[in-house]
Amino acid sequence: MKIAVLGDRDTALGFKLAGVHEVYAFDETSLDVERLKNKLEELIENGDVGIIFITERLAQRIELPDVTIPIILQVPDKSGSRFGEEALREIVRRAIGVELKR
Fold this sequence. Notes:
- By secondary structure, the protein is α/β, with parallel strands linked by helices.
- Strand 3, helix 3 (56-59) and strand 4 (71-75) form a beta-alpha-beta unit.
- It has helices spanning 9-17, 30-46, 56-59, 85-96, and strands at 2-7, 22-25, 49-55, 71-75.
C-alpha cells in the first residue's frame, strides 16, 4: 500500500524529499480547494493508498470523509499545529499504535 500526501507547496516538497512518491501540492484558492477535494476522492477510490497525510490547514477547508481505509491523518504545516502537541500524540497513538515521547 502507498502513502499519499496532500499539502501546501513547502510541506509537499518536504515529503517528496523524504521519498514519498504520491505528493500533491495545493494553494488555498477556491480552485485548488476543488482540486484537493477531487484528488482526495480519487485517492480513496483508487484502493492502493493505505495512508493519506493532509495538512491541518487544508483539511479544515474541506469535509474529510469518514473512511477506515485509507487512514487519513492531519499533519501540521510550516505554521505549526492547530491542535497542539498533546493532541497530535493522541492522533498518532490511535492511528498507528505508537506513543510518542519527548
